[in-house]
Design goal:
single chain; mainly beta; globular; Immunoglobulin-like; three-stranded antiparallel beta sheet; 8 strands
Amino acid sequence: MTAVPPEVLWAQRSNAKVDSKNIIFLKVRLVDPTDLKIDLKATSLDITAKSDGQDYSLHIDFYAEINEEESHYHVAGSHIAFVLRKKEKKSEYWPRLTKEKAKYHYIRTDFEKWVDEDEQESKPEAGNFDPSTMDLASLAKQYGGKGDPSKGSTGPSEYGDLSELAHSAAAKKE
C-alpha cells in the first residue's frame, strides 16, 4: 500500500525580542496512529504511521531552522500537536512553512491559531483569557439584556405576561 501524506495545519508567531513568541504551531491529523515514528530535526520533520488501515508518511524541510531542544509535541487521539521554537528571533513571519516554494495540497493554514503579522502584539493569546475581568452587566446591556439577573425582572417580558400561561398549564394538569 502506498503511503499518503496526512493533513497538516500550521500557524506562527514572531517576535524579535522574546524567544517564547517565535513559534510554529503544527497540527498533523492522524486518528489513533500506530507504528508511529517521529524524527524532528533542526531543519526537517519526518513522520511515518498507520491509521485506519492506511499508511501515512510526511517529510517537511522547514523554511528556516528550529530549535529542536526547545520544541515539543504531543500525540492526541485525532492529531499530533507540535510547538516548534524558531531558532532565529525575527519580527517577520516565515513566508511559508517549507523550504521549497511549491504548494502542497495537504499543508493548510490553521485559522484557529493564525494571527496576522501586524496584529500579533495587540491580540491576546487564548490561554491568557481571564473571565473574571469581564463586566457581564454591561455585556448583557450591550446585547439587549436588562442588567443584573439577580435583581429579578426589570420590566415586562417581550413575550407578554407569562404568569397567565403558567397558571393555565397548571389548571390543565388538575
